[in-house]
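Box S2. Input/output pair 1.
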Amino acid sequence: MKQILLILFAIAFALVVASPANAQNDTISQRVKLHGISIIPPAHFEQDTITNRITHQGTMTYIQTHIVTNRNFKRITSAITDKYMRTQGLDLLDKQETKMQDGNEAIIYRSRFKSHDANGNEMDFIRLMLFTGKENTIWVTADFPECIAKQIEAPITNSIKTIQAEQ
């Protein structure tokens, strides 16, 4: 029964995310601010002012941002190795060099870790970590259950590529 509910949930979520009405437009009214960074969140995500992150409660998914001052992202990412990730409880799946929506360089790490759902059941989660910036590093983390990765990973990746430091 639990697997059937999960499959139905994944199908419903995929239909909502894929709907043309939910396409992102880069307009200032759609941006939200988090820790001095603005981002266009995926459809149906809400800003959680208590934790200062963007969440989708129904899928246990969140996006969180940080600024590391006076440190270029390339210097930070040069220290992120598979061995280091394992010490943090993460299995590194891949590393991708990419471009942000504004054309700046970025690196996205994709990893897997185990956590628990609201009922205490162990689940595999995917963590995306995006690093970009010049003098200061913008660091974005997005966590979501691996079982819905096919439906949610692309919208989250598109969203985190819209981040900009607030002036």
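Box S3. Input/output pair 2.
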Amino acid sequence: MPRVTTETRDHIAHVTLTRPDKRNAVDPEMAEAIVAAGHALMGADVRAVVLSGEGHSFCAGLDVMSFAALARGDPEALIVARTHGTTNLFQEVAMVWHRLPVPVIAALHGAVYGAGFQLALGADIRIAAPDAQLAIMEMKWGLIPDMGGMALLPRLTRSDVIRRLTYTAGPIPAAQAAAWGLVTELAEDPRAAARALAAEIAARSPSAIRAAKRLMAVAESGAGEAEILMAESREQAALVGKPDLMEQISANMAGRAPVFGKKG
């Protein structure tokens, strides 16, 4: 069985971790498959992505036994070498979804630990089942979070929360994760909720959605006020008068659903 599957329907890519017998734990093969799935969507004609896991958990973290052999090798070659631009393979597992030009919605259930937690951080939006448990698990194994977590966590929550989760490796319930800004919302069926939200997003102007994601990346980058304001203006100017905007206006006036062209 493949470690990851991608199915595109109605402009939405449904990316699923498919190693349920191991609670979707990430071994080297799965890491490669997750990254490949994200890269394959970079230029695809999709408007949203739903990221989920089969079985009892979204992702229970690293498959520790599979990485034990790798740990006996050269850590510099395994971890420090940049294999994907600014990242190594393990960091790319999360960062590829952060860089995707369309919104990514993660549907979380069961264990969302370590690598799984950091993978979820790469999404724009996280919808969790009430009984989901989230943890920065690396300290349990004498490690630090090193799969993009420290690039993504400070955008979402306070420093003291990050430190508590990192130092203890203790799981927290989804409701606490939501209170701390790590989960967007709770849903009894997070996959169904994620798919419904993706469908709502896919019905909007694809060019405006992509522009909004680019603009938010600038706003979160630490750029100065002048740079952010200019980015707003440039993105808006690029939308005005273009086919997606004109179709959106026509559909609104006619009381019908808009029909957009490719990508936007």
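Caption for Box S3: Strands lie at 4-9, 12-17, 48-53, 104-108, 111-113, 125-128, 133-135, 172-173, 185-186. The chain has two domains: 4-201, 205-254.
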